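Is this the right way to post structure tokens for a design question? Let me know if I should format differently. Anyway, here goes:
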């Protein structure tokens, strides 16, 4: 029987990253899970679960390792059964930052309405609820692997599942699960109608040639022979490099670039002021990294600049700007705090987020953020920038950011 990966959160990134790596490895299949909408399932099922990966400059690569996609709201029992299935050796997750339902301290938010409903036995609806309830009845070892842009993503996911299980009084004594940390990287924009028409594939996914994956060597059982993946005992240095330099710069560009009237990353990079600020932010973030990562930082800055300059990616600034309250704490605020506030470009990034929030509310546009209603209330009631900073855990840096 072909070993399988169960992947929860089958968006464009997962299909350009984990699924692509698994295609190259061979010998494994991937079953996807959508936690919300049937749209991806319906589109993929109509074409036998295969799709094209449009790799910029290289053409379209056919991906055919997906064997099924489950829609959790339609069949929660089927998802739980897959989590417990002994032929599923890896359960991977890419649900974005907000999908973890955490507090600013990275703990499971027991007051979150969806978590509360899952604890009451009304679901599951969340990835945390599904994992806890599915693992509780599983009888064989399994690796649960976060593929999201979170610091210590495996540790954070494990802690959330353990907390949920304790609150739900689930018996986890026989659970044999490991939660490796990982760092993932591949710029993957939203699919456009133009690309769909060009390829004749409604489910095509655009991406760049570059890809990177660093995984903690902490698996509970077999894994695919993924090419070019780095397995290491210490993911954190790589994770910090990517989160603080790439993602931090992306976030700054998203807010400052949108305020300046730009639409895409490459447009913002053509703005001399923003280009200089982007490279400066990368340099500031590099100062917070390990000595090993600092040595490669100058070359990494140049490589990131070239990737950001790519005019063929069409990476929307507004796509990156989503969920800022979930992203900024470890993309920008952690670096700023580590430097004691002595980082003008990082400060400018936070100010750009504040300006973006205020401009969006003033224009009557709905923010794409879990705390959108709170932000809107602060802005419309004449609230302070300090109140906005509190939403990203940066109120103690107000003196530096707002001076």
């Amino acid at each position: 029987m072909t070993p399988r990966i169960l992947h929860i959160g089958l968006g464009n990134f997962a299909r350009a990253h984990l699924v692509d790596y698994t295609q190259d490895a061979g010998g494994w299949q991937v079953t996807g899970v959508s936690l919300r909408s049937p749209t991806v399932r319906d589109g993929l099922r109509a074409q036998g679960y295969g799709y094209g990966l449009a790799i910029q400059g290289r053409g379209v690569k056919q991906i055919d390792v997906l064997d099924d996609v489950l829609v959790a709201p339609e069949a929660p029992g089927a998802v739980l059964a897959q989590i417990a299935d002994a032929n599923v050796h890896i359960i991977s997750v890419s649900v974005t930052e907000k999908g973890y339902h955490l507090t600013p301290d990275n703990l499971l938010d027991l007051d979150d309405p969806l978590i509360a409903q899952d604890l009451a036995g009304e679901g599951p609806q969340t990835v945390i609820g599904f994992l806890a309830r599915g693992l509780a009845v599983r009888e064989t070892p399994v690796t649960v692997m976060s593929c999201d842009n979170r610091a210590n993503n495996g540790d954070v996911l494990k802690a959330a599942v353990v907390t949920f299980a304790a609150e739900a009084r689930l018996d986890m004594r026989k659970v044999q699960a490991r939660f490796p940390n990982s760092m993932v990287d591949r710029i993957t924009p939203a699919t456009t109608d133009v690309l769909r028409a060009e390829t004749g594939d409604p489910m095509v996914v655009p991406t760049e040639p570059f890809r990177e994956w660093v995984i903690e060597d902490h698996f509970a059982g077999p894994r695919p022979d993924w090419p070019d993946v780095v397995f290491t005992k210490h993911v954190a240095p790589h994770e910090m490099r990517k989160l603080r330099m790439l993602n931090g710069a992306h976030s700054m560009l998203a807010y400052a670039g949108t305020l300046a009237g730009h639409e895409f990353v490459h447009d913002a990079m053509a703005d001399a002021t923003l280009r200089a600020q982007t490279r400066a932010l990368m340099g500031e973030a590099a100062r917070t990294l390990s000595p090993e990562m600092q040595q490669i930082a100058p070359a990494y800055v140049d490589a990131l600049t070239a990737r950001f300059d790519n005019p063929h990616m069409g990476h929307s600034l507004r796509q990156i700007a989503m969920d800022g309250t979930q992203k900024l704490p470890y993309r920008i605020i952690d670096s700023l705090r580590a430097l004691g506030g002595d980082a003008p470009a990082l400060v400018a990034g936070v100010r750009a987020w504040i300006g973006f929030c205020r401009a969006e509310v003033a224009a009557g546009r709905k923010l794409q953020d879990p705390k959108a209603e709170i932000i809107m209330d602060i802005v419309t009631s004449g609230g302070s920038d300090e109140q906005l900073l509190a939403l990203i855990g940066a109120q103690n840096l107000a003196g530096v950011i707002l001076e």
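Format looks fine. Someone answered above. Worth noting: Residues 236-259 form the longest helix (24 residues). The chain has two domains: 4-233, 237-401.
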